Amino acid sequence: MKLFRKIDLITGNFIEDVIFESHPTVLDAEGNTVLDAQYVEEAPKQGFYLPRWNGTEWVEGGEPSPIPEPTTPPLSTDEKLTQMAEQLIITQTELEVVQEALDFLLLGGM
After folding, report:
1. Residue boundaries of the structural domains of the chain
2. What is the pTM of this model?
């Protein structure tokens, strides 16, 4: 019994592992018995995400996911400090409003 890899004849992509006594054969156009090209005895290298047979060897058939480009350039230190200062002012203003509301509620509107 031998382990073969079944491939898609159009794309070369790996389909499944199969076990046969010997390499499967088919008849060609002249009626001669030839090895079935859909079965490959060579094992793909470890680590391939989508193994693909190119006719002579296994290659990586998957497309790596593109790394998205940053939409905006990173901020300089001065720009970061300016943003943080603006956010601090907004937060401080919100806290003052909350403090006034609490004083109103606790002191009964005075």
Report:
1. 2-60, 74-110
2. 0.55
